[in-house]
Specification:
The chain is α/β, with parallel strands linked by helices. Helices cover about 40% and strands about 30% of the residues. Helix 3 packs parallel to helix 5, helix 4 crosses helix 5 and helix 5 runs parallel beside helix 6. It is globular and about 50 Å long.
């Protein structure tokens, strides 16, 4: 059964139609990379999946539960408490880290599991230290984000998302705010998660990374999924002319 299923997803911002009918699904343990030019709707798509944006039309099911559906032309979300629980099965890593500057690294990782999920503080702190060790930052636990490099801050953000024990992890261009030499350390963490069969959707412009880590690659343009397939098929043997043109431009950069 698909762990994430999206049918007929549309999203308008006023008169601007950003997503024009997205059908997508993925299974547990699969990694999907989402490629496409700026303005194609990639980030809006994943923001719709966890209610950071409300959809205009369509259906979203997460782990077999309906988050949003369209009934008689009107979008109906699950009741608030249920919607929060369903969205709690997802985690999000943002482009610009979004760490709390007034909290230590450890506090950033433990805040939501303690305050939102109401888990025991001692258990959460133990888990948080294990996650910080996994991302290579256990020695930074008592430092503040301002003392970390961008790559280190993004690795803390990944640990923070994992601390909520999500079923699916969404990444919105996790390396685009980083210098090239810091990109590798973040991509290594994501590769490790892929090896552990974490279900992930990754909006990225890192073509070689997508080729190496993804079970499935999606190419979006103009608010549509233009083409999807295995990483090798889509990146090395694209069928659609728009996909070929985009990949050729990326290879020239």
């Amino acid at each position: 059964m698909a762990i994430l299923e999206v049918c007929g997803l549309k999203k308008n911002f006023g008169s601007l139609k950003v997503l024009k009918g997205i059908d997508f699904q993925t299974e547990k343990g699969k990694v999907t990379s989402i490629l496409g030019p700026s303005g194609s709707g990639k980030s809006t798509f994943i923001r719709c999946l966890n209610r950071l944006e409300k959809i205009t039309e369509g259906t979203i099911r997460i782990d077999g539960e309906t988050l949003a559906d369209t009934v008689d032309g009107k979008v109906v979300y699950a009741p608030e408490k249920e919607a929060r629980r369903i969205c709690g099965k997802t985690g999000m890593v943002f482009q610009n880290f979004n760490l709390f500057p007034h909290m230590t690294v450890l506090e950033n990782v433990t805040a939501a599991p303690i305050s939102v999920q109401k888990r025991p503080a001692a258990e959460v702190e133990e888990t948080a230290m294990e996650l910080l060790k996994m991302v290579g930052l256990s020695e930074k636990a008592k430092q503040y984000p301002s003392s970390l490099s961008g790559g280190q801050q993004q690795r803390v953000a990944i640990a923070r998302a994992l601390a909520l024990k999500p079923e699916i992890l969404f990444f919105d261009e996790p390396t685009s705010a980083l210098d090239p030499e810091l990109t590798g350390e973040v991509l290594r963490v994501i590769r490790d998660l892929a090896a552990e069969r974490m279900t992930m959707l990754i909006v990225t412009h890192e073509i070689e990374f997508a080729l190496g880590v993804s079970d499935q690659v999606v190419f979006m343009d103009g608010g549509y999924i233009v083409e999807s397939g295995t990483a090798d098929a889509l990146i090395n043997h694209p069928k659609n002319e728009r996909t070929r043109a985009f990949l050729n431009r990326m290879h020239e950069v």
